[in-house]
Amino acid sequence: MSQSNASGTSSSTNYSNAQNSSSGGVNSENQVLTRGRLQDLVREVDPNEQLDEEVEELLLQIADDFIESTVNASCQLAKHRQATALDVTDVQMHLERQWNMWIPGFGTDELRPYKRAPVTEAHKQRMALIRKQMKKF
What we know:
- The chain contains five helices and four strands; from the N terminus they run E-E-E-H-H-H-E-H-H.
- The chain is mostly helical and 137 residues long.
- Helix 1 packs antiparallel against helix 3 (53-80) and helix 3 packs across helix 4.
- The radius of gyration is 22 Å and the shape is flat.
- Mean pLDDT is 79; it is low at 1-13 and 15-26.
- Pfam families: TFIID_20kDa (PF03847).
């Protein structure tokens, strides 16, 4: 991923290195979400909540799988554009298209308009029926 350092130059991660480092077994040194950080997140949500060890393992595995699949798909996007480095836009494109996620503050500074869900005909009929019933009272 491209990042700017203090001198203003851009450093990049070679996407082939990112793919190789993301494969293989789970290593606690390489985990983005550690057991301690997971417990901190749970305490932020509910200070009285305690996770079972099996639940912690499952959540850590899900997080690792998500990160691995995101890195791999983003690397494939970078490879598709014939780039030698993984860029933030590759990750953004994968997250937006696969997971419908948009992380504000990264990449472009464009404002993302709120997309209102289209109103179906069935919804319009239900709302008309509700309005009709409300008029009777």
